[in-house]
Design a protein that fits this description.
With 100 residues, this protein is α+β, with helices and mostly antiparallel strands. It has a single domain, classed as Orthogonal Bundle (434 Repressor (Amino-terminal Domain)). It contains five helices and three strands, in the order βββααααα. The longest helix has 19 residues.
Length: 100
């Protein structure tokens, strides 16, 4: 997967497909997913660990992180708690990714 930013347009290349994210909401969803993955690495966890910690199936978490489903707010709060940060901090870190 290749993620590129160009003049407020985010492009994600997966295999032969390129997805362009041009709204703030779309960019934030991608940035949040990326930030959760970064937090997992920093906490020496994988998606299965996180899914178990918040009480959902790992396939469901995978769908959230791939953008195939929207993550419900209560789940987002559980994710932040499992990662040892507040929801606000997790969101701020994701938003900082958009500004880069």
């Amino acid at each position: 997967m290749v993620i590129e930013y160009y003049e407020n347009l985010l492009s994600i290349q997966t295999g032969n497909s390129v997805i362009h994210m041009n709204t703030y909401g779309e960019r934030l969803e991608v940035a949040l997913s990326t930030q959760i993955k970064v937090e997992l690495v920093e906490h020496d966890m994988d998606q299965k660990d996180l899914a178990a910690a918040i009480g959902i199936e790992s396939a469901t978490l995978s769908r959230y992180l791939k953008g195939h489903r929207n993550m419900p707010m209560p789940t987002f709060f559980k994710v932040a708690e499992a990662l040892g940060v507040t929801p606000r901090v997790l969101m701020e870190r994701a938003e900082a990714r958009i500004q880069q």
